[in-house]
UniProtKB/TrEMBL annotation:
The keyword Nucleotidyltransferase applies. The chain crosses the membrane at residues 16-35, 56-72, 78-96, 103-120, 126-149, 161-179, 191-211, 231-251, 257-280. This is Phosphatidate cytidylyltransferase. GO terms for biological process: peptidoglycan-based cell wall biogenesis. One of its GO terms (cellular component) is plasma membrane. It is an enzyme of class 2 (transferase). Its EC number is 2.7.7.41. Keywords: Membrane, Nucleotidyltransferase, Transferase, Transmembrane, Transmembrane helix.
Amino acid sequence: MNPFVSTVSTHAIPPQAGYIFMVIFAVLVLAGVIGQWLKRKKGADNPTIANLNARVYAWWIMTIVLLLAFWFGKTGTVILFFLISFAALREFLTLVYQRRSDYAVMVMCFYLLLPVQYYFVFTEWYGMFSIFIPVYGFLLLPIIASLSGKTEQFLERTAKTQWAAMISIFCLSHVPALMNLHLDDFPHEQNVLLLIFMIAVVQSSDVLQYVWGKTVGKRKIMPSLSPSKTVAGTVGGIASATVVAVLMSPITPFSPVQAALIGLVICLMGFFGGLVMSAIKRDYGVKDWGNMIQGHGGMLDRVDSVCFAAPVFFHIVRYFWHG
């Protein structure tokens, strides 16, 4: 496709997506009622109940934002994830960088790599979208870093920047890129359902791992990386989210078996993504990437699993269902 041809769409989301959001809102209402009942019964000072209510509140905000973005189609979705990438990149670089000499590198990430990558998504220029950061970005960032003349920990500093660009920009940009796919026997205008499927399955895995871990989880799975994750919580959450994937298969081009396999893969990638991002936080001695979202920490704390799941999901769909 010509990279200078863009398509701006503003339209209502597909009916299937509307039903899904209605179910989500109903679940949030129920969770809010239960949370307030537990608050009155157990007391406002109970940390578990307070965390539950904060999470429900945060999910209300995030769900409404997603609904508004999807309502405006491809344009709204690209803008939303551009802003999410910006927030994630800011959190990542704020944590890992302290040197003034690296200022030019950070400027390059924010004002060149980020907007250009999302320009390629918006204009459906897949060739450049897929190689811009892994090739040109990876070559450019160390060049800019070397121009500072500072050689102390040069390789470490360069790797941090490249990793920030890969996670916060490249990986996350695969979410709105799903809107560009042209699949066999699946209407292009319903591609937003692919986003909803991927986000719903991965995020439900996170939530269900938390629920299973709090109810039956005892044995820690990786206490040095994520003290709150348990074996029962992880297995139960991923298995339950795989069932969610099967239940959502009618809105996708996948059969129930295919949806189960894809759901399992992206849930596992989300789980490993959470471990990797937790390892980085532990290395720097922090619990959360930030405090942007009440009850959920920073933006990266919410999208760490999506960062790892989105590229895998995108390429599975593109390679096996692309028309």
